[in-house]
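If your schedule permits, I should be very grateful for your opinion on a structural question. The matter concerns a single protein, recorded as an amino acid sequence and a row of backbone structure tokens. Could you please explain, in whatever detail you think fit, how the structure tokens follow from the sequence? I set the record out below, with my sincere thanks for your time.

——
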Amino acid sequence: MADEPFTTPGRKLPTPVPRPGERLFEFLRASDQAPMVCELRFHVKSYGWEAQFFERGELLYAHGGFPLRRLAVQWAELERTALERPDNPPPTPFV
């Protein structure tokens, strides 16, 4: 049996369009007044929900694998509480 191409040669695949997340809340980080946004995303049933935190429009960090939306919301609210404390320094970016 000859190897057949996985797709038709010359076929152009459509460019995936990123889907916007569900904006959960916005706030100013207490330590430096940076604008923060938290979004929820549902990927697939096997992965579940993900909460993403953006600083000035750039992804800062995320945590996923929540089987239920309410668990992702609960985690995001705890993170927001920590970021709103004035004695909490901003996270160190990865290098």
